[in-house]
Structures are given as C-alpha cells and as structure tokens.
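Question (not urgent): is this output format expected?
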Amino acid sequence: MNENPYASSLETKVLSATPIELVNMLYHATIEAVQAARLQLSRGQIFERGRSVSKAIAILAELNGSLDHEKGGEVSTRLAVLYDFLQRTLLDANFRQSDEGFEKAETLLRTLCEAWSAIIPPKPRVPMSSNAPREPQLASYGFASIPTPVEECAATAARQWCA
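Got this back:
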C-alpha cells in the first residue's frame, strides 16, 4: 500500500504533463522548498532547513542537467548560469543563515515560473456531453514516446517528493 495517498496523483500529473508543464512543476516545487527553508530559518529548524535547501538545489541540478545546449543555444546557456547562481545563492544563504539570499532566490524562481507559465498552451476543453470521437491517448496504450531528460527528471523528483 502506498504510504502517501497523493503519490499516485502526482505521478499521474507528471506522466501526463508536457515538457513545458514539467519544468513549471519543478519550478513550483523549488519555490516551495525555498519557502519552507525560509520558514524553517525563522523557526531555528536547522536540520529541516538543510533538507529543504538540499531539495531545492537537487531540483535545480536536474533542471540544469536536462538543458539541451545544442538546441537551446543562448537561452540554455543563460539558464545554466542562472541555475548555478541560484544554487550558490541558496548554499550561501543556508551557510550564513540569512533570509536575504533565500528571498533573492525565491524572487528569481518566481520570475522564471511566471515566464514558463505564460508559454504553456491552454488545454483544449471538451464538453462533457460531446459525442464527438476523441483522439486516442497513445500513452495509455503503451506507445508513449521515450521520456525526455526533463520528463525523467520530473519523474525522479516526483518519486523523491512522495517518499
């Protein structure tokens, strides 16, 4: 039996998400980890803060590792630099026990998340009473494409979050 009742729901969301949605989900998770670290800093919860910072840094490392520098060109190079900066900022804030670094990282992550949210195409709405034939969902028949690095990253992150 699954210990976490939300694990299957998160797994479903991850497996049905587009690559852009996966990146957005990872940004949201990173923001949540930074927010948790800020709260734990204010409460003096050193161990918990360290776990939250480690989680945020691990997600950023996965995002960085999933960048395709051949296809992404200058954008992927700039994202790699930004992810590195965010990781160093979080480590420094944790070491110095300073909310300023956490706040800076959270602000940058929110900006990235908003930008990615803006490019997510809206999902088509199908009326409940529609008798029109639907496009078959190939993933449900086992014909899904090979997962991209971002999808693999999101699936790995989902398993870690639900553990």
